[in-house]
Amino acid sequence: MNFVADLHTHTVVSNHAFNTITEMARAAAQKGFWAMAVTDHGPAMPDSPHRWYFYNLGTLPEKMEGVWVLKGVEANIVDASGALDLTERDFGLFHFDWVIASLHSDVVRPTLTEDECTRLWLKVSANPHVDMIGHSETAAFRYDYDAVAKEFAARGKVVEFNANSCVARPGGEKNLFELALACKRAGARIAVNSDAHSIYHLGVFDSVLPVLKQVGYPRELIINADKRTLIEELRRHGKAIAAKMEEEL
Ligand SMILES: [Zn+2]
Ligand SMILES: [Zn+2]
Fold first, then answer.
1. How far apart are CA 52 and CA 87, in angstroms?
2. Nearest residue to 72 (alpha-carbon basis) of 42, 107, 102
3. Coil, strand or helix at 41
4. How many angstroms separate the alpha carbon of residue 193 from the centre of ligand 2?
5. How high is the pLDDT of residue 172?
6. 1: CA distance to ligand 2 center in Å?
7. CA 65–ligand 1 middle distance (angstroms)
């Protein structure tokens, strides 16, 4: 399976990553990608950049090193209510091309019950700023996949299959399979991403591809498998960059 974009990557402004945005874009170009999203951690993570970094992202060109670089964020869910660490004011000051909402155990202690996690994701799915649900298969935060996948599908949230989870969040492999089945049953659109913290892992999706193959995930529901599918998804989320990307086809 070919992919045209990697929609979850980190740069050196998240202190535990190793390459600059320019280096990541150049690596994406060299690996044959058409687009990528740079999605550094929102302010609740200990190593996140200052809010000003996000406001200033818009000063960078839309295309860097020959690749469309979506200016994004991996926002943190901060409590059981599903609230994010970016405010309405933040979203007003900078219109992100790509917003991931993720649960990290450094921000929310993994003591929530399955019902609490289910309610949390239902709340997140109602947040109009959120484009994609980050690595939600993690073993520490199990939820009702069928109930929530239906909402993700209905509200147009892209569900991520994160190739870095097997390293960063081991133990979720069975969940990943069950989540893929639930998403397929619900007809949810998904993305396959590296969550790379260096050029070496950018675009490396190997760990999740067997799961999607086993489940027989429909290719037309994988938003980063095709340029037109990606553009349509960005348009559905109201992203101005979609029109410019389409001009290039
Ligand atoms: Zn994450
Ligand atoms: Zn990440």
1. 13
2. 42
3. strand
4. 10
5. 85
6. 23
7. 25
C-alpha 162 to ligand 2 mean position (Å): 9
d(CA 98, CA 86): 13
Which residues in the chain belong to E strands, given as ranges?
5-6, 35-41, 63-64, 67-76, 98-102, 132-133, 158-162, 190-193
Give me the pLDDT at residue 170, please: 85
Cα–Cα distances in Å, from 41 out to 193, 210, 213? 16, 28, 30
Q: Is the dihedral of CA 20, 21, 22, 26 positive or negative?
A: positive
Q: Which residues surround ligand 2, an ion (CB under 5 A)?
A: 74, 195
Separation between Cα atoms, residue 123 and residue 114, nearest integer Å: 14
From the CA atom positions of the chain, what is the Rg in Å? 16
Q: Which ligand is nearest to the CA of 101?
A: 1
**Residues paired with residue 133 on neighbouring β-strands, in sequence order:** 101, 159
Query: Can you tell me the distance from the alpha carbon of 195 to that of 40, in angstroms, rounded to the nearest whole number?
Result: 10
| pLDDT computed for residue 200 by the predictor | 98
Tell me, in angstroms, the distance from the centre of ligand 1 to residue 119's CA: 20
Region 74-247: CATH code? 3.20.20.140
Q: Between the CA of residue 24 and those of 100, 116, 223, what are the distances in Å? A: 18, 37, 21
- Pairing mode, if any, of strands 5-6 and 158-162? unpaired
pLDDT digits (tens, 9 = 90+) for 27-66: 999 999 999 999 999 999 999 999 999 999 999 999 999 9
Report how far ligand 1's centroid is from the alpha carbon of 135 (Å).
Answer: 7
Q: Which residues of the chain have pLDDT under 70?
A: none
